[in-house]
Write a sequence for this structure.
């Protein structure tokens, strides 16, 4: 998304023993973002055309977006083109708009495209800042991103010329195999076990709770009659339409070396299961820009700068 990003480095590049051909491994911090909220999907401060605002950080959204009612308020310019967007609950259409200036962390960008779509959170504010949209995977997938929500931080790194860079975290951490969805390479596919049954789920910081597709729940041994006895609620899809949710207590959920016993998870009619923000609220998770692995450990790691050590499994 940020084709013209100008990076203000937060210090000199690190020089590590896992080096490029010219002998240097360069790691530049694009931003150390403060997470403003303590529950649910992370929200960070930004500016659009000089207006202080806040955005939800949504790794499950293909495109970054602005609520349509904010387009004129923030001075964005319509391109008179639309795109089709897919997500929970189906699909919807959105208008392409351009922001002259975007500020995020220690970086600024010019001529930044957004999709004008969604109204569910329009009118919400945090710390006096209006929540105006989503930062999606089109931005996040351009960098190494470390979600450190227990410490209310998201670190964004621009890494070049490094081989086998790994997080310099104290204690044990897990290296978790992932794939990238064939329809959208920005979506991170995790391999989970639900009641011991293998399923796939997208890593989605924009999902307040982990969401299990009805098909995955049934294949994991849940009966339709079980769901009818569960507590019910409502969720919202990409088109802001309400969708029914069932809150079901499963026997177990496993991700890599992490096991969660008797979790209560949302179940809904959706194409894909999602590992949501409540997982990220209790773990540090490093998502490299390249490769087929992510790294995770329980909260309280002291350092989150990528380094060149081998992981402890």
């Amino acid at each position: 998304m940020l084709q013209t990003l100008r990076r203000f480095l937060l210090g000199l590049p690190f020089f590590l023993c896992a080096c490029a051909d010219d002998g240097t491994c360069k790691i530049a911090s694009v931003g150390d973002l403060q997470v403003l909220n303590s529950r649910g999907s992370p929200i960070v401060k930004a500016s659009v055309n000089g207006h202080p605002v806040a955005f939800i950080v949504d790794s499950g959204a293909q495109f970054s977006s602005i609520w349509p009612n904010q387009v004129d308020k923030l001075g964005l310019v319509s391109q008179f083109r639309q795109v089709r967007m897919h997500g929970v609950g189906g699909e919807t259409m959105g208008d392409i708009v351009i922001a002259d200036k975007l500020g995020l962390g220690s970086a600024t960008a010019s001529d930044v495209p957004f999709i004008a779509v969604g109204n569910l959170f329009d009118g919400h504010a945090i710390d006096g800042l209006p929540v105006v949209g989503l930062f999606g995977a089109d931005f996040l997938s351009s960098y190494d991103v470390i979600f450190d929500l227990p410490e209310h931080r998201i670190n964004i790194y621009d890494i070049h010329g490094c081989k086998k860079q790994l997080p310099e975290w104290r204690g044990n951490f897990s290296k978790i195999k992932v794939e990238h969805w064939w329809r959208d390479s920005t979506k991170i596919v995790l391999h989970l076990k639900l009641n011991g049954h293998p399923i796939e789920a997208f890593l989605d910081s924009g999902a307040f709770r982990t969401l299990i597709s009805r098909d995955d729940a049934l294949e994991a041994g849940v009966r339709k009659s079980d769901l009818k006895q569960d507590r019910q609620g409502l969720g919202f899809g990409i088109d802001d339409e309400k969708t029914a949710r069932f809150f079901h207590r499963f026997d177990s959920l496993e991700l890599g070396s992490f096991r969660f016993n008797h979790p209560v998870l949302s179940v809904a009619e959706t194409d894909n299961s999602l590992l949501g923000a409540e997982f990220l609220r209790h773990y540090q998770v490093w998502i490299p820009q390249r490769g087929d692995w992510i790294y995770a450990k329980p909260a309280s790691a002291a350092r989150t700068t990528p380094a060149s050590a081998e992981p402890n499994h």
User: Anything to note?
Assistant: Residues 1-21, 301-313 have pLDDT under 50 and may be disordered. The chain is about 5% helix and 50% strand. The radius of gyration is 20 Å.
